[in-house]
TrEMBL record:
Keywords: Cuticle, Repeat, Signal
Family matches, as InterPro entries: CHIT_BIND_RR_consensus, Insect_cuticle, Insect_Cuticle_Struc_Prot
Organism: Iphiclides podalirius
Region (Disordered): 81-111
Protein name in the entry: Cuticle protein
Coiled-coil features, chain-numbered ranges: none
Biased composition (Basic and acidic residues): 85-94
Keyword Signal included in the entry's annotation: yes
Signal sequence segment: 1-17
Amino acid sequence: MAFRLVVLTCLVAAASAGLIPAAPLAYAAPTYHGYQAAPVAYAAAPVAKLAYAAPVAKVAVEEYDAHPQYNFAYDVQDGLTGDSKSQHETRDGDVVQGSYSLVDPDGTRRTVDYTADPHNGFNAVVRKEALAVKAVAKVATPVAYHAAAPVAYHAAPLAYSAPLYHH
């Protein structure tokens, strides 16, 4: 019964919103154990139709550059984390040239020099070089704690006795 009430409420709401043409809705209660309730009629209130025009979206047309050119570069050198990487790239028309480098987890620097053009496609040359080993000392922060009462430590007295001889 509750499901039917929800469906009816949704239909009335849709009719009020103008999604369904406004027309009288009739709902008859079902028969329970031989008893039938009187039919209930719901008439939807007339819906005023509002004219609404959606805003017209302006389409931005990008200019076509027949000979694109750019230079791009970045460099990261973080002494705290040891992160070290860089890249530079240039483009002149359909020819792209660049290089990037980074420090691999094994402590080597990987450098990739690459070119790309319509005739040769993408070509890359990869080099690896060993870096000087830097010792990184991990310093533990001392843990500070507060004792409830100061504790005094005293060394226990030493007791020495000569061996006993019996005659």
